[in-house]
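Reading a protein record of the kind used here takes only a little practice. These numbers are not coordinates but entries in a learned vocabulary of local backbone shapes. Here is one such record, which you should read through line by line.
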Amino acid sequence: DLTTVVVNFANVACTYGEKVMKLSKGRLFEYEGVRRCVQHLTESLELRVVGVVYENQWALDKGMEARAVPLDIVRMCEVSGGSIELTPRVTGQQHRSADDEMTIKCAYNRNCRFL
């Protein structure tokens, strides 16, 4: 399905926080990067976006603390025909990349691309 893309919000937000916002280690997750990514994918490329993020993800949104995915991002995903998939927090060394695994599984089940 080339009209759908699964996006790992943590990877996008942390890369944006580190490279664009020049945030320091430990506080890299910035929802503005996710907002810009989803907006580009939905409006410019007209793709259906499925976002993957940890439950209760601590993050920054325009410099302020956020514990949930901002509503404007949720709406952009839902309007495009996609959704937000919450990854449960699981402890243990073998579960360090549970969000990456969830991203790949979501893309596999939908037979689509992932970012």
Q: What stands out?
A: The mean pLDDT is 90. Residues 35 and 72 are 8 Å apart (CA to CA). The chain has four helices and six strands.
